[in-house]
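Weekly structure sync, notes
Attendees: PL, DS, HV (note-taker this week)

Item 1: DUF805 domain-containing protein
DS walked through the input record. Source organism listed as Microvirga terricola. Sequence as pasted into the shared doc:
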Amino acid sequence: MPALEQTHPDSNAKELFELFFSFKGRVNRAHYWKVIIALFLADVALEYLGPLFARIVGPIAVELFKAAFALAAFFPSLVTIIKRLQDCDLSGWWMFAPVAAIPVLVVGSILHLSSFLMLGWIAFGGLSIWLFVQVGFLRGTVGPNRFGPDPLGEAQPAMQLQPAGD
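Item 1 (cont.): predicted structure, written out as tokens:
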């Protein structure tokens, strides 16, 4: 029976800290979805349990707790999105691509140009959809890239089909 590998408790804490608070490295789609779903479920639980806790501790305390949770969840979700982009060999700055449409929306609003507003909303929606698909559904770069090793492990060679009957 092989000996169990002993790890120092601080190394696990460091790994966890780097996973959620460091912009270095890459994460795969499974990690991304685990973070997004966990934060979504926590938010839903806070919304539904909020009125119950408001009777006990008061509505202001509940709202303060919800705001603190939102602030605490913001940075790890930002890091996770950036690491997913890095997994696809894209800079984390691509996360702000939908923001590029805001000047078009502002000009359209100020000048009352409906065509600018339409163009701005189309650009914003299109860039948002691209970002969602890129981060949530497309596989990252196979093998290492400039942001680190493949989070799914080393690249496997493509399976070769052999002719039958040899």
